[in-house]
Structures are given as C-alpha cells and as structure tokens.
Design a protein that fits this description.
The protein is of the alpha/beta class and 628 residues long. The protein is 46% helix and 19% strand. The chain has 20 helices and 20 strands. Strands 5-6-7-3-8-9 form a 6-stranded mixed β-sheet, sandwiched between helices. The two termini are 53 Å apart.
Length: 628
C-alpha cells in the first residue's frame, strides 16, 4: 500500500506540560485509524499540526503523499454567518459557484432573459451535476433549507453542514476531530455507513465506541507523550493495551529488584576511579530512571453516595401535554420502580426534552397527574450545561453547593477533595470557569449534579465532550447506581451499557416501551422495515398485474411534456417544500424545548399550522406537475 502520510519526530508542549515528544508514525492508503487518549493530552493538538493550523515545537517533518486530496473536519468549523447554507458550501468547493449563484438569482427574479443566459452558463460549466450533488448530500444529512443563513443554524445543523462540506470534497484522506458530537443517531449511522463503504484513508478522534469499532481497523493511543499503534477494533485494543501494560510493569519490577542490589554496591563502594566502575555508576542512574516509572493513571473517581430511595418514585397517570395544535405527550401512564434504568430515543423535536422537563417539574401537564415520592432526590444533567456567573472559579462552583460531600464509604469529604477526585487538582481550583475546556466544563457539571447525592438521575446527552476513559468510569458508576436512571443519548454503546429498556418517542405524543438494549431495538426496526418493503413490493406487483392498458388518449396525455413555465414551477416547488418541512421541524423542536413563553408558544403553534396547510397545497400541485 502507498504511504499517504509520514510523520517524524514532532513534539508539542504548553508551558511545563508535555503533550507528546518526538513521536513518529506512518499512515498507509486504506488505513482507518482512531486516535484515543484522555482529554487534554494532545489529540486535537496533533490533528491541528497535521492540518497546518499549529506547528511542532522542535521541528520534525510531516509529509503527505503528493497529489492526494486531504479534507479536515474540526470540532467547530467557522462559517460565514451571513451566507446561505447552499452558498457557503458551494463557495468552498469550486469555481462554478458564481455561475450557480447567478442562476439561483435569475430563477428568484423571474427575469426570462437572465434565466436563459444563466442556463447557458450552467451548461457550459457543467454546473447542473455539481448543484445536484450538493443538494443530495445536504438532503442526506437532513439539511433542506438551502436559503437559511449559516448564523441561524443550530449547533447540530452546523456540524452536519461541516460534514457535508468534507464529504463533497471527494478527498482521498479524511482527518476528523469528534465527528459524532451533536449528531442524532440517524445521522451517525448514515456517516458510519458512508465511511464503512468508502475507500478513503481516515484518521479521527472519537468517543463513540460503536462508530470506532465499525469504521476503524487500527487504533493509535497517546500515552505519556508517546504514540502506540494497535491493529484491530476497540475490544482488541483493550486486550493488547492491558498486555503492553503488564509487560511494562514486569520490566519496571525487574529494574526495581536490580536497583536494590546496585544501590547496595553504590553505598558500599568508594567513588570509583576506574572506567569500569564509572560505567557501572552511569548504568545505575539509567536503571534508577527506569525503575522510577509509574504506570498509575489519574482517572475520575465517581464514588458519591446515593440517597435512600423509597417505594414510591414517580407515578404518571394519563399525562398529556400540548403546545398549541401539537401533542407532545398523549395519555402517558407509568410508575417508575426502584433501580430501573430507562433510555429515551426518538427523532429530534419529538418531545424527549419536554418529557424530562415534565418529570422534573419544570413543566406541568395539561391533563393527568405526576406524583413524586417523598424521598425522591432528582439530579438533572441538562444539555445546556453548567450555569455560572462571570468570574466564578472552579472552587466557587462546588463550594456554593456544599462544603462537604457524602461518599460511598459512608463519610463526608471536603469539596476540595471532591474536586481532586474529578481531576481538578489544587492549582486549578482558582481557575475561572469561562476558560475551562469543553471536557473540563462537562466534568465539573457532572460533579455538581452528583455531589447532591441524587437517587433519580436524569441525563440529557451526557457523553458529549467526555473522553472514552471517563465514559468507561461513568458507565461503571451508572451500572452500580442504587437509584433510577432516565437517559437521553445518541451514544449507542453508552445506552447499551447503562439502560434496561427504552421509551420510544413518536410523533403525536405516543410512547412505546421497548424491553431490551438499543442495539436490539435497531435490529427490530430493521426487520420491521424489511417486512414493510417486502409487502409494499408484493402490493405493487399485484397492482401492476391488475392495471388495464392505457387508452390512446391517456398515452397522448402521458407523453405531453411540461411547458417551460411548468418546469420552472416544479423546480421552485422542489426548493420550497424541503424549506417548509425544515422550518416546521425547527419550530417543533422549539416547542418541545419547554423554554418558550406562553405568547411564543401560541405564535409558534399558529405558524406550524399555516406551514402544514401550505405544504399540503404545494404537495398537491407538485403531484399534478410530476404526473405530466
């Protein structure tokens, strides 16, 4: 295989902290590599050096194979907030952007002469296929409002736009930093399938272990400033990593035993004059360095106590909630029992966060009742993250909650000790919260939730910005958690590890209880879809057999072509319908957020009703034109 990338002796430090030193590696054509390390140890720094956005401290060399195309996906891609989605994507891809932009303007203006001129320019530049590719890729990633300003996109929509831009480049080599962050499960599975089938070479940082396992064939680990390579998937990596650590520990133990004997010689022998003795003294100091290596790793210690949970948890009876004309929850009845762990899945905007707000009392139902037990103590980890005031320090945040925290051992420890257990050493306690990294903010937020000793944990997308090692520890804690769990997550592995059954949320406020893991649910859905496709095919074949031959008049009508005006109308409808659908979905998501005032709720609901009517009218016209 051809060598796509050769890296030799690159280093990176920040002050006294060494991220990596003199690391070298090679990536061949067809390699699909995941880079793993704890937060703050250099993963993103390494990718930025490869992308040319940063440099190695001590020279080194980075050499990509000549003539290969490389595409980079950063965690946060900077876009022009004033450009439309289509313009922003196309302007970064090729020289025919201006041709397409003028054509779109001509269509919007309705100027016949300009339309004809720009159509000729489109033909000359072969821009039709480029435009279609962009629209298809954006549509595949559920981005249908092509005229929406980039500044109006949500975080998830901006991430999908960045992924579309990367995929449209048809690059030979993809470098991606956390591609699954802020994506829903459907989009993650689409990207996963694309990369599985693609022949591209890949280097990525990800915390999604299913994504990693299904896409990658090699794992790079950054450990103590050095890079280690493992062939195979994540499970094989864990086994080989354990084997490497065992070998390292055996060598360290051997060096320590030998050091004890050499130490006796050093202490009992006068300073040597001979070359042989000097050589032995030099070897002693080298041995001392090898024996002093520690393999101990600092990991988050999640060992907070859980408050006693009584027999009554949360009892829901006939709970319904509507936002205007839209039903978010319809006649939901359920009694939570002790120690049960529930995952919540469903499309964006279907009401998952609304449901969490109902359970916590932030929203009240229109009908039905929600009764909470007297011993219930809810810990609610929200997507929005931690609330803090400008200037607050890490220590201020936890000290405002409690001076001491009850832990599993049955005693209390200080807030300062609790910070240390969550990897905030004393030198970070005076650090302002606003300058923390994404991973540090999430870790601090999790601490503030757990230090209140909840017995009912509600977690809304807890895995974003947490590294794999911290996720493993969180999963172990949740598996042994002596309380109830309610989790919304796009991380399939995390759901499989932590929940016993699922609430499947659907349009119209319906909730289905599925007993089993998320992976089992996906298999069930695929079987249902396959069966529906088989029945639809049989029905179509049966209908075709029973359809009478068309009359001559029908044949003449069928062969009639669209007029120029009808063709333009059809094209405009194909632009407007996805835009209206996207606007409807966005407004529905706002409705389900639980954060709108009463006035905005009513106005948003009215707008959704108007959009639905417009969609129905335009769909009927589209069908009429499509049948000509």
């Amino acid at each position: 295989m051809a060598s796509f990338l050769q890296v030799e002796n690159i280093s990176k430090s920040y002050g006294d902290k060494v991220l990596f030193r003199n690391i070298s590696f090679n990536i061949n054509e067809g390699d699909k590599i995941a880079l793993i390390a704890p937060n703050g140890t250099g993963k993103s720094s390494l990718l930025k050096i490869l992308a040319g956005l940063d440099s190695s401290d001590r020279g080194g060399e980075i050499k990509f194979m000549k003539d290969i195309k490389v595409a980079f996906l950063d965690q946060n891609t900077a876009f022009d907030p004033n450009k439309t989605l289509f313009d922003e994507v196309y302007s970064r891809l090729g020289s025919t952007y201006e041709v397409i932009r003028r054509y779109e303007e001509a269509i919007s203006s309705g100027n016949q002469r300009q339309i004809e001129e720009t159509m000729a320019a489109m033909d000359a530049a072969d821009a039709w296929s480029a435009e279609q590719r962009i629209k298809q890729q954006l549509s595949a990633l559920k981005l249908s409002r092509l005229d929406q300003r980039m500044g109006e996109l949500s975080g998830g929509e901006a991430k999908r736009a960045a992924i579309a831009l990367m995929l449209l480049q048809d690059a030979d080599f993809l470098v991606m930093d956390e591609p699954t962050n802020h994506l829903d499960i459907d989009i993650i599975e689409y990207l996963e399938s694309y990369l599985q089938k693609s022949r591209c070479t890949l280097l990525m940082v990800t915390h999604d272990r299913y994504f990693l396992d299904r896409v990658c064939n090699t794992i790079f680990e950054l450990d103590r400033g050095q890079l280690h390579s493992y062939k195979g998937n994540y499970s094989e990596f864990l086994e080989k990593r354990e084997e490497r650590y065992n070998n390292m520990q055996a060598n360290i133990d051997k060096a320590r035993n030998l050091l004890r004997r050499e130490l006796e010689w050093i202490r009992s022998t006068p300073q040597a004059r001979t070359g042989k003795a000097r050589y032995r003294i030099n070897a002693f100091y080298d041995l001392k360095d090898r024996a002093s290596v520690s393999l101990a790793q600092r990991n988050v210690a999640i060992d907070v106590a859980t408050s006693r949970l009584g027999g009554k948890i949360i009892d829901c009876e006939g709970v319904s909630l509507r936002f205007g004309e839209r039903t978010m929850l319809d006649d939901f009845s359920y009694k939570f029992t002790r120690y049960e762990k529930v995952g919540i899945v469903g499309k964006n905007g279907v009401g998952k966060s609304t449901f969490l707000n109902l359970m916590t009392g932030l929203l009240q139902p229109d009908k039905g009742s929600i009764e909470r037990g007297e011993t219930l103590r809810i810990g609610y980890y929200r997507q929005q993250g931690i609330d803090f005031k400008p200037g607050q320090t890490v220590f201020d945040i936890v000290h405002d909650i409690a001076e001491t925290v009850e832990v599993k051992e049955g005693h209390n420890i200080s807030a300062m000790s609790m910070l240390n257990r969550f990897l905030f050493p004393p030198e970070t306690h005076t650090k302002r919260v606003e300058i923390l990294s994404g991973g540090e903010l999430r870790r601090l937020y999790l601490l503030t939730i757990l230090m209140r000793n909840p017995n009912f944990l509600i977690l809304d997308e807890p895995t974003n910005d947490l590294d794999i090692l911290t996720l493993n520890i969180l999963e172990e804690y949740l598996e042994s958690f002596k309380g109830c769990l309610l989790i919304v997550s796009h991380d399939r592995y995390f759901l499989d590890k932590t929940v016993d059954h699922l609430f499947i949320f659907r349009e119209g406020g319906a909730v289905k209880d599925f007993v089993g893991q998320y992976s089992e649910y996906r298999e069930y859905v695929k079987e249902q879809e396959a069966e529906e496709a088989r029945l639809a095919k049989l029905a179509a074949e049966k209908a075709a057999k029973n359809t009478p031959a068309p009359t001559q008049n029908q044949q003449r009508q069928h062969t009639r072509k669209l007029s120029y005006k009808e063709q333009r109308e059809l094209e405009q409808l194909e632009i407007e319908l996805p835009q209206l659908e996207a606007e409807k979905q966005k407004l529905e998501a706002e409705l389900s957020s639980g954060e709108l005032s009463h006035e905005l709720l009513m106005a948003t609901s009215a707008r959704i009703t108007a959009i639905i009517e417009s969609i129905e009218e335009k769909e009927m016209r589209w069908l009429e034109l499509s049948e000509i």
